[in-house]
Every structure is written in C-alpha cells, then in structure tokens.
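Troubleshooting entry. The earlier prediction with adenosine monophosphate gave an output that would not parse, so I re-checked the input for stray whitespace and re-submitted. Clean input:
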Amino acid sequence: MTTADSKPRVFSGIQPTSDSFHLGNYLGALRQWVALQETSDAFYCVVDQHAITVSHDPKVLHQRSRTSAAQLLALGVDPERSALFIQSQVPEHALLNWILGCETGFGEASRMTQFKDKSAKQERTTVGLFTYPVLQAADILLYQTDRVPVGEDQRQHLELSRDLAARFNNTYGRTFTVPEAYILKETATIKDLTEPEKKMSKSSSGPRGCLNLLDEPNQMRKKIKSAVTDSEAEVRYDAENKAGVSNLLVVYSALSGTAIDKLEDEYRGKGYGDFKSDLAELVAESLEPIARATREYLDDKAELDRLLTKGAEKARAVASRTLAKAYKKVGFYPPVAN
Ligand code: AMP
Ligand code: TRP
C-alpha cells in the first residue's frame, strides 16, 4: 500500500548493539536510508527489542539506543520528513510479533542462517533469538512497507517477511503489503579490512578490521593504511583473487562517486601506497562531520528524546491501524484503553 500522496513506503531498522555504526552499516544500508527520503515516506527504527535477544547490559543498551538515534540524525535522517523512533516505544511491534509467530513454521524459522551463526556464538541461546526474524517481519509489515533498504546479510530475513505477509493475506484476506528488499549491488557487503574474505562486522572483526563512524580521524587513517591487500601492487578490481584491494576500491568508489574502472585508470602504475593514503584522507574527511554532528545531537538529550517521542507517535499512528486490522482478521478482541 502506498500513502495518500502515493510515495512508496520505506521501513528499515538497525540494532543498538555497539557504540558506533561501522562503514559496512553506512555504505550497505544507512546511506540508502538517507537517499530514499527524497522519494519515499520513510520509517526508521532503532530496534532495541532485537538487541535483547543476546545478553545485554540495560544501561549500555539504553545509552546505545540514544547514540544510534543521534548517529542516524547526523547521517541525514530528517525527523521532519521521516519517522525516526525507538522500537520499544511502539508496543504494536511485540503484539504483531505474537500473531506472526503463530503463522511461522518451526522448520521455516530453523532454516534462518543468521540464527545458526549467532546461536553458535552464544553460551546460552534464547527463544527470542530464534524468533528474531519474526519480530523483524512484524516491524516491516506494521507499516505496509513497499521497500526495505538493508545489506545483503538481511536477504533471507526479508524473504521470510514476504512469505509471512503473503501467507497471512492468503489465509485471512488482504491485510499486509508484501515488502521488497532494497539492496544495492555495489555495496551489498563491505568486507573486513584485515580479513577481506569476511564481512565487516562489529562482532567478528578484530579492532583493525572494522572502521567505526565515530573513530577518531587518525584511527580511521591508520585502519585504511593497514588494510590487508596482496603482493601484486596493482590497483585492480578482482573480488575473488584480490579481495582486499577490491573492497577498498568499492569503498573509494562509494565515497567519491567515481566509478571503479576510472579509479583503476587513475592509480595505474602507482602501487598501493598512494592509493591507500588518498583513500585514508577521503574516509576521514567524509566521516568526521558525522562524528561531530553525532556529538552535537548527544549534547542536547532533551531535544533528542523529544524528536524520538515525536517519531514514535507518528509511527504508532500507522502501526496501530495495521495491528487493529490484523487483530480483527484473526478473531481477537480489540485492546481496551487504559
Ligand atoms: P547490523 O549491524 O548487523 O545490525 O546491520 C545493520 C545494517 O547494516 C543491516 O541492513 C545490514 O545488512 C547492514 N550491514 C551490516 N554489515 C554490513 C556489511 N559488512 N556490508 C554491508 N552492509 C552491512
Ligand atoms: N535484522 C536487522 C539487522 O541485523 C535489523 C532489523 C530489525 C531490521 N528489524 C528490521 C532491518 C526491519 C530491516 C527491517 O540488521
């Protein structure tokens, strides 16, 4: 379903599970969040309920939710145009989660590869972690979402959301828009800087492999300069045989807007030193303003919380309509006012 002025509806979420987002989050997903505001009616959510599917510290979680929201604003999420909110402020997410959980097959949920990866790393695996993708489907379906900007690692979860929407509509009559994943091919997976065969990630990357948006500029330069390349000294894109250099080319191209083949021409015969120094400057220059703006948003806590409350109110107005429909369809009584 599209909105009254017929702009497509966009929804995405990000977990507040680190003190800073990283370059993979930024290029794989968050830049698209910002760009899509131009053409869409966007809802962006800090998914703190997903964050407690693994063990957490309440104080740290609370602080990280705020830092995450501040970073999204600093990146250019515009609270006037889009709804920016914290998931736990909109109770409809957990309520639809229950209904969708009762539509999800146990075997279907068992096939989710992210669950397998994450549970293997936990001492103790919770039911919440197992049903994580169902809550994600609830997030998306509540907003009658057309498009979901994410990185490649979310494709399977998006497929589940689509299947659940279609199944529910089929069983109970049209209720949910069937959403589509919006994944940019070029930046779908940014790789770890020290182990370029793996994706960049806050959990699995070593300290030098993951470039955080809130790193000090000099730290960013160091990380780029110490990125793993190869012994050829030829700046050429070849994801299979030159994973490290190819990843740096992807980052360079995404941040500069220059096509990869143009960059190859530019650095022909120059070796990796010049290439890395230029990229280190580009990264530091591009990301430093984001860190500065984040600090400014964090300095005014009351204003930030006010923006988030406004975002949650806007989100709830839409979410509660969808939930009421779903309640009716499955034969529930409506919630009473308190
Ligand atoms: P996460 O930090 O895993 O919660 O991811 C938040 C968003 O960033 C999701 O849309 C992911 O698909 C995306 N993302 C995470 N890591 C990467 C990466 N290395 N490359 C591209 N996108 C990523
Ligand atoms: N699972 C997503 C991630 O790890 C976060 C997420 C939760 C999400 N709900 C969502 C992403 C809804 C898109 C839409 O990145």
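This one parsed fine. The pocket of adenosine monophosphate (ligand 1) is lined by residues 14-15, 24-25, 28-29, 150-151, 153-154, 189-190, 199-201 (CB under 6 Å).
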